[in-house]
Write a structure and sequence with these properties.
The structure holds two protein chains of two kinds.
Chain A lengths: L1 H6 L2 H11 L2 H17 L15 H25 L8 H17 L4 H23 L4 H21 L29 H23 L1 H11 L1 H6 L4 H27 L9 H14 L4 H17 L7 H15 L8 H9 L1
Chain B lengths: L2 H6 L1 H29 L6 H19 L10 H36 L4 H22 L5 E2 L10 E3 L2 E3 L1 H23 L1 H11 L1 H6 L4 H27 L1 E2 L3 H16 L4 H22 L4 H15 L15
Antiparallel strand pairs in B: 1-4, 2-3
The chains are: A mainly alpha, B mainly alpha.
Chain lengths: ~350, ~325
């Protein structure tokens, strides 16, 4: 049985092919895949179309937004093994940056994007420096608290709209002649997809280099990693800050599309949904995480009766996954190899 | 910043702080007991409390006590309250045992990573909150006024009402009961043994799985009793009521030293007082921020809390 599973394991077969492929083959594969994703809004197939919201808007939110955030959270939870339950705070900081700077100043959108990422990173440092000295479950509670504090501060600060939030957030300026408007959501999809690809490129590069190895060492055993000379605190902080920056970027883009934001959008539920995407897809495996985000984002939109119950289902999913398949649907390969050797 | 309120209302704030602290303590004990045996924070404990509050409401529904009925007489109140607290304790206790069985047991036996158990517990917690949110249609549930809340007597600015006195007496009785169970019963011996060293206690013939189950039951019963007092005092609940009560109780447990039963009591009363004073000065909106800030400060400055982790060895 095990042999058959290995034979028909698409992930490993693909992995083997990928390892043997020439750089030309790899480049072609990448190009085709990316092209396919960019062409998605043109496919009007009733099989994949969503019944109530337009397919383009679903592609932008939740699919790509979830994917970006899941990739960001994966750096923290999956790669470094730090449970962050307040990830929505970084998203909120990004969204509020775009709202405040977009409404009250006439700064360029791209500058605001960088600024949003900067603020999110700053928040990551502010939270991470004290919190990352703690153990896993304490850290989880602190991050949970952080997410709530950011939301409560937004509710109680009248200067940024209080509980009512902010309206009239400007859209990004046209790129390559494409207008960002309410009628046509495709440019937003392409913009966010581009950001996702950039993020992926960066994270994959980092994973193969020193930070990636340090993160995995910390995840497997922090004490041993420290004994072996890994500067654990520093790399944990880096993971936190990088994850935060990605969440911030997602927030800026999201706010530029949604036109108005309110603190209610940034509740704990969103953090948990993103965490469910990471857990479901396979903690630590970036492709698994994206798959999880796309699936968990898409299914409630496709099957509308699920929408009301989605957090209920996500909750069950987290329990079931942890108990039966703790490494997710598409687990990371390296770990399995090590486990089999033992 | 309204410091004058703090001075003029000092007695009232202090009295309410102690009452709130007593309710927190009943919930905080559940965190501390489970932490003692599992070395894990039971994330879904707040939902066990929520189930208790919902059970209280269900009992009044079954008994046909509407929100607009007049407060009960003392005799009938005693009967109704006993029924409520028993039902809530039972419901919370049973849910806690089921929770342990579904979300923790397998992972504990497999010796899975801490992260897996945490995520599993969070999943269970969200499942329960959502389940009750859907059942209650996200409404705030009003609990009927069971007892007259006219002050019995007034000390300075503090209005001593029957419900507050009931909370204090009831909670104190439960603390003594718990103390007996922990220190003078076979179950208590098992809990202390597993807390100190699980492997050795298993070798000495302790059935660890049974002790863990019973610890969850104990914590659940206390949370259920706490929820009955909470309902008589606050008279409202909703599906996510557990979140803030849970965070406060958890903060209290950490403040006193998690894993330490006496610490949980001390931490709860301290936190209850701090919350009352800070709400008066800064405004009620900032209460939860204050709680979180206290939690962060305690964890940074003195992570073992006021009394230290006495139920177990030093932190690993």
């Amino acid at each position: 049985m095990k042999k058959i599973l290995v034979l028909f394991n698409p992930r490993d077969r693909f992995g083997d092919w990928w390892d043997r492929a020439t750089s030309l083959q790899r480049g072609m594969f990448r190009l085709v895949l990316i092209g396919l994703f960019f062409a998605l809004p043109f496919i009007n197939n009733p099989v994949i179309d969503t019944p109530e919201t337009s397919f383009e808007s679903v592609l932008f939110y939740p699919l790509v937004m979830f994917a970006i955030m899941a990739v960001g959270l994966n750096v923290v939870v999956g790669k470094s093994g730090i449970l962050d339950l307040g990830y929505v705070a970084f998203f909120a900081i990004g969204a509020y940056t775009q709202a405040v700077f977009g409404i009250f100043t006439d700064l360029n959108f791209w500058l605001v994007l960088l600024l949003g990422m900067g603020f999110a990173m700053l928040a990551g440092i502010l939270l991470g420096v004290p919190a990352l000295r703690l153990r896993g479950d304490y850290l989880a509670i602190i991050t949970l608290g952080f997410g709530e504090i950011v939301r409560i501060i937004a509710v109680n600060t009248e200067a940024i709209g209080g509980a009512a939030g902010l309206t009239g957030i400007p859209s990004p300026p046209p790129i390559l002649g494409m207008e960002f408007s309410v009628q046509d959501l495709r440019p937003y999809y392409w913009l966010s997809l581009t950001i996702l690809l950039l993020v992926l490129w960066g994270i994959v590069r980092l994973s193969h280099r020193k930070p990636g190895r340090a993160w995995e060492a910390i995840r497997e055993d922090e004490d041993v990693a420290a004994f072996m000379g890994v500067q654990t605190f520093r790399y944990k902080l880096w993971a936190f800050v990088i994850g935060g920056a990605i969440g911030g970027a997602a927030g800026v883009i999201y706010a530029s599309q949604i036109l108005s934001i309110e603190p209610k959008m940034f509740e704990l539920n969103l953090s948990i949904m993103i965490l469910a995407c990471v857990v479901f897809g396979g903690m630590g495996n970036i492709w698994g995480v994206i798959f999880g985000a796309v699936l968990l984002g898409y299914l409630p939109e496709k099957l509308r009766f699920l929408t009301d119950y989605r957090i209920l289902i996500f909750g069950i999913l987290m329990v079931v996954m942890m108990n039966l398949r703790p490494n997710g649907l598409i687990p990371r390969k390296k770990r399995e190899v090590i486990l089999e050797k033992i | 910043m309204e410091f004058s309120i703090l001075v003029s209302e000092f007695a009232s704030l202090t009295f309410d702080g102690i009452v709130v602290g007593a309710i927190y303590a009943l919930v905080a004990l559940g965190y501390t007991l489970v932490y003692g045996v599992l070395r894990l924070i039971n994330f879904a404990h707040s939902e066990i409390f929520m189930i208790g509050t919902m059970t209280c409401y269900a009992v009044t529904l079954v008994l046909g006590i509407a929100t607009d009925t007049d407060p009960l007489t003392l005799a009938s109140f005693t009967l109704v309250f006993l029924l409520i607290i028993l039902a809530a304790s039972l419901a919370s206790g049973v849910s806690a045992v089921i929770l342990e069985f579904v979300a923790y047991r397998r992972l504990r036996i497999m010796r899975a990573s801490r992260l897996s158990s945490l995520i599993s517990a969070i999943g269970a917690s969200f499942f329960l909150t959502e389940l009750f949110r859907i059942i209650t249609e996200s409404r705030n549930i009003a609990f009927p006024r069971l007892v007259d809340k006219e002050p019995i007597f007034v000390i300075s600015s503090a209005y001593v009402t029957f419900d507050k006195v009931l909370v204090l007496i009831g909670a104190t009785a439960l603390f003594f009961l718990l103390n007996r169970v922990i220190n003078h019963s076979k179950l208590g011996l098992g809990i202390r043994a597993v807390s100190q060293d699980e492997t050795t206690s298993v070798l000495m013939g302790v059935n660890a799985s049974r002790v863990v189950s019973l610890t969850f039951l104990l914590g659940g019963i206390l949370a259920g009793a706490g929820s009955a007092f909470y309902m008589v005092f606050y008279e409202t609940t909703k599906a996510n009521v557990g979140f803030l009560v849970g965070i406060s109780a958890f903060t209290a447990a950490v403040l006193g030293g998690i894993g330490n039963v006496r610490g949980a009591l001390l931490g709860s009363f301290t936190l209850g007082l701090i919350q009352q004073y800070s709400s008066a000065v800064l405004g009620y909106n900032w209460r939860d921020v204050v709680t979180f800030v206290i939690l962060v400060l305690v964890l940074l400055v003195k992570p073992t809390g006021l009394l230290g982790e006495a139920l177990q060895r030093a932190r690993v």
